[in-house]
Amino acid sequence: MGKIGSGRGCVWAIVMLVLLLASEIGVAPASASASVVEQKRTCESKSHRFKGTCLSDKNCGSVCTTEGFHGGKCRGFRKRCFCTRPC
Fold first, then answer.
1. Are 69 and 57 in contact (CB under 8 A)?
2. Are the beta carbons of 50 and 63 closer than 8 angstroms?
3. Where is the secretion signal located (predicted)?
4. Higher local confidence (pLDDT), 81 or 27
5. Distance (Å, rounded) from C-alpha 5 to C-alpha 41?
6. Cβ–Cβ contacts within 10 Å for residue 54, how many?
7. Which residues are within 8 A (CB) of 57 and not within 5 positions of it... i.e. 6 or more apart?
8. Which of 30, 35, 56, 71, by CA, is between 20 and 30 Å from 45?
């Protein structure tokens, strides 16, 4: 009879420990949430004027500025020029 009671106590202790850990995971410091708000999103669009394989971020950025974007970078398996701007 003693084994059954101690098993229930052990299970109860494990359940309480899991609940305690789960509640700690969801809590974020106020400074972390404030920094997320301060970050700006960057939108990307494939360049219409850049021709060929993109080998230089600098060249890509130059072409993108003529298209009215803030900059550009080469990305993807096929190395295409994508223009960037704040959303």
1. no
2. yes
3. 1-32
4. 81
5. 56
6. 21
7. 72, 73, 74
8. 35
